[in-house]
Amino acid sequence: MEIMIIKPSLMRQQVFSLLLIIFVATLPSALNAHGPMARIPEATAFQARLFTADAATGEVVAIDLPNGKLVGRLSTPPFIMALALSHNQRYLFVQRGRSTDRDFVTIIDTGVDPSEAQARPPYIARTILGQAPFTGGKEQISTVAEHDALLMQDGAEIIVMDAADYTSMAGVQPITYKLANPDHYSYVESGAHLYVGHLRSGMIQILDRSSGKEVSRIGNCNTLHGIQLDEQTGRILVGCNSNVMIIGSRGAEANVELGRVNYPIEQRAAVFMEGKNRVIWAFTEGTLPALYRLDLKAEPWTFDVLPVSRAIQQHVSADGNYLLVYTRSGELEIRDGDSGQLLRKLTISGPVELVLDEHVDKAILPGIVTLDSTAFVSLPYEGRIVAVDIERGTVTNTFDIGGEPTRMVVVANKTSPKIAALVDQAVEKRWYGADDINAGANTYRLNCAVCHGEQAQGNFGQGNIDSAPVTAPPPLNGSAHAAHHSLADMLEVIDSGVDPVMPAFGGLLKNQEKLAVIAYYQSLWPKNVYDEWIEVFGQHQINSSVQNSDAQKATEHSHDH
To answer: How far apart are CA 274 and CA 387, in angstroms?
Structure first.
């Protein structure tokens, strides 16, 4: 056997040559790593975008509507007290609660231009360190001559943003107006003046809008909280502890106290909302037995009392046509925005029995916002947001986002169809519609909720689903095994019951009522659960069950006649 001996010098040359070949072969790809890359467009079609504050984490959650797609969870300094859109709705101001020794306002680029049909992912543009900053207490930030403005309550200042580009290095050019004292403020702008209410000082400070210089003061309003402008007359309503003070802002009435409106019962007004036909709705915080109605068309002004049932959140639709009242029983009352007459009522959550004392550290209460004829109600105790068709009084969608959603704002594409129509399209992707859900909710509440829970969450006594006995009524909301059964199986269980723990409803409910109950609790199923159910059992099982129901309905109708 012949053995080849390679000299060390020759081996080094061969190794060097091999390395050189490898280097040259990889050289183009290495250079290409710094070459031009294809850029993927971020913009997508957009109808509306909902933002909510998560009281559990301090995050701002962004959801695209109507499908409920989660497009962002943006971390801000915990915890959030308020959300307010900029005057052009392209930015969201996130006001931190006063739970620590530093106060922040985070400004988020919403990714939206309401005049365009596309949106990009939202992102944090900047965070400002302030002195107990206040955005104004409404869904849109306070403004001075169409410039966004922050009220620094501990610094006794109004910071006016002279430019509205919060994403560039030099995009904000603040102008400062000095206020009389550090305080909690109420604020409104009218004509050439700014009206700033001071809670502890009990007075309205009036500033020239252009210069920020003080013009006048009007006092004697103990524990001042809440302010509202009547656009038609220029008169301003100011909430005092024992009455509402009226101030003029135009002509001979300008900057003069015009009178007081007394409260008819032992309940003050601290929040004002404009309803329909120049009707103002007024209320305070806490669980309320009544709301105040003030018709600005009828002088002299007096309050009417509208009794309500343990109301914990109130809102007036953007067009003023509806007054929405969410109660401790978990019901949403839809009332006329003028008279307050009850039009519709539906259950959207379980009963709320928690202590609801909200302070300045963070928001904890449910929120309500409206877009066209759809209301969105955040349920912090259930980790979800419910969409309600106001005109029909039906739940059209549920967004299970987790956490504790509280404050909300919504931005809409002004060129898109109404959001209610888009929500209807989303519902139509399932075998049932909004009318089925509403009918099923009523039947479920009367026959099923006592065992399976108000929100189909099951009943495990003091335990949970893992430790519950076999006889415990299971969840029907998609969190357990209800999704493991076909529609025919579910109908059979309702018909025959489960001995000995569930009675048979076959002789009590018509087939259409049983299907409506299933439609209701399936509407609580997350999209992935429902999609998996369809994939396993197929669309044909739905068609078969619904056809059988239609045949039975025809038989029942013939027997009735």
So the answer is: 22
Query: Would residue 386 be called left, alpha or beta, if left means φ above 0 and alpha means ψ between -120 and 50 degrees?
Result: beta
Q: How far apart are CA 24 and CA 14, in angstroms?
A: 15
| Pair 303, 294: CB distance under 8 Å | yes
- Closest to 399 (Cα-Cα) out of 431, 367, 372, 421: 367
Handedness of CA 304, 310, 313, 318 (dihedral sign): negative
Q: What percent of the chain has pLDDT over 90?
A: 60
- Condensed to tens digits (0 to 9), the pLDDT of residues 425-482 reads 555 568 887 778 878 888 988 899 889 887 788 876 544 445 555 678 888 988 788 7
pLDDT tops 80 at residue 220 = yes
State how far the Cα of 194 lies from the Cα of 214, in Å rounded to an integer. Answer: 9
Q: Which of 504, 454, 495, 447 is nearest to 476 (CA)?
A: 454
Angstrom distance (rounded) from CA 542 to CA 530: 13
Instruction: State the pLDDT at residue 314.
Output: 97
CB-count burial class (<10 Å; 0-12, 13-18, 19+) for 9 = exposed
C-beta of residue 333 within 8 angstroms of C-beta of residue 347: no
Residue 41: DSSP 8-state: P
Tell me what pLDDT residue 554 has.
Answer: 47
DSSP per-residue string spanning 481-511: GGGGS-HHHHHHHHHH-BTTTB---TTTS-H
Distances (CA, A) of 320 to 69, 163, 335, 373, 545: 29, 31, 11, 11, 43
Select the more confidently predicted residue: 323 or 529.
323
